[in-house]
Amino acid sequence: MADNSWDRPLTLAEVAAAAGVSVPTVSKVINQRSDVAPATRERVQRVLAERGYVVNRAGRSLRQGKSRQIDVISQDLDSYYAFQILRGIQDALLATDLRAVLASTHDHRRRELQWIQRLADGSTDGAILILADHTSLHLQELRRRAIPFVVVDPAGELGPDDLSVTATNWAGAKAATDHLLALGHRRIAALLGPPDFAATRARLGGYRAALLEAGLPFDARLVRHGDWQAERAAVETGELLALPDPPTAIFAGNDQQALGVYRALWRRDLRVPDDLSVVGFDDLPYAALVTPALTTVRQPLLEMGRVATTMLLRLMAGEPVDSVRVELATPLIARESCAASRRQV
Fold it and tell me: Quick check: helix, strand or coil at residue 84?
């Protein structure tokens, strides 16, 4: 069988493995850094030539000169979630002369082609991708061109050498469920995001672990998957409330879904937390302003943006990073949306 491995995008990790060097060393060679031994440089360049990689000298010149630009690529740029991450990125760039250019993965094909052309022209020094995974065409193109990137809150699996920053989703979900269990709730529903998202799988795992630790059986009827949005969450909540043995509490996969739970209860003349306790996830700014104030798991979105930017800056400088995978803590923020269960066990 023919070996087609050379037909796919070339990764820095593959070059590093073939040359027997580290990924940052490959990046240094591509960007013509002077702090590489001549023999090492020659070995890396030979691997690049054998695999058909051509360094874009015009682009490299721009990156070393006036470009000073990184791309921030997200599925959704108009949500509170993305806005908090963008604020963190902006904070980390204040001390530099770099500027961030925003792009959405929901753009038209023409805009995507324009973005790829900018990469070819050397107009981008690096990129931060929000909610990307190994299937992302943007990620694949960045990897093919050996442009440094970091993924914030990966939606799915990444390559072993792809850098990422996320939150402790499993631990945060377990803390949320433990909180409801401590209040005497035994019928706890989980209203989560799409099942193929990495965060969804981790939060479901934390929820199930808390139930198992409490000696409670897992009831699949109490687990619902939505699209992270409030309206779909309201529909799912209505179905949960219609069960013969409805839940007394709901762990929502994010704060938007928690608002959907609020909406469903309001439509039925029910109240939080008198009729149903609710815990969210994210701690977006409005969580403390709704009535009653939402108990939620704080996802450090600002810090995730800052850390990802710091990691990217080190990659762009050809410096090593401390870890390929970074997870930031997710504390529970207790407010007024939870109360002791009134149902007799």
Answer: helix
